[in-house]
Amino acid sequence: MLPLGAGIAGESRTRVTSTSLAPENWPLLHTAHPNVLMVGSDVAVDDALHALLGACLQSVVTHRINDGLELPSCSLGRTVVLRGVAQLSLRDQHRLMEWLGEACGRTQTVATDARPLWPRIQAGTFLAGLYYRLNTIYFDLSPDADDDPRRQ
User: Fold this and answer.
1) Domain harbouring 108, CATH code
2) Residues with Cβ < 8 Å from 94, sequence gap 6 or more?
3) d(CA 147, CA 46)
């Protein structure tokens, strides 16, 4: 069972609590290396990344999207954190989809943004396929526990 505040894509979700972020509650992140989507403030995302990936044995590489999309070469045992993923242009979203296809099973991607991506999908500015690819496990780090992850 998943701790409060997270879910597998397509399930209902609630707010993540600090007690649910202990690495021992998330062995899946360190064994199967699923892609993760985190939505919340920079501070909340930083805290969650530190809590969840602090004990990670594989290397962690962080990229801020506002600096342009830089994709590392596919290599075994790496976690790539993409900060501000909603800022990706459609061209870069397609590049990321291609890269994820090549890196699948070898590289874990943790995508973060301050606001939910669902409204951008509805507006046609974010690829639905990329959203579902990144959203294997979803962490809603927003302060309002009653919000739907697809909120505006």
Assistant:
1) 3.40.50.300
2) 127
3) 21
Question: pLDDT tens digits for 91-127?
Answer: 999 988 888 887 655 678 889 999 899 999 999 999 9
DSSP symbol at 93? H
Antiparallel, parallel or unpaired: β 59-64 and 78-83: parallel
Displacement of CA 66 from its chain's centroid (Å): 16
Quick check: is 83 in a domain?
yes
Domain that holds residue 41: 29-140
143 contacts 39 by C-beta, under 8 angstroms: no
Residue-level length of the chain: 152
Residue 146, in any domain of the structure: no
Query: What is residue 104's predicted lDDT score, i.e. its pLDDT?
Result: 55
CA–CA separation, 66 and 85 (whole Å): 9
This prediction's pTM: 0.74
For residue 25, what are its two tokens? 């509650």
Low-confidence residues of the chain: pLDDT under 50: 1-15, 18, 145-152
Closest CA to 40 of 148, 115, 110: 115
Q: In this predicted structure, what is the pLDDT of residue 26? A: 66
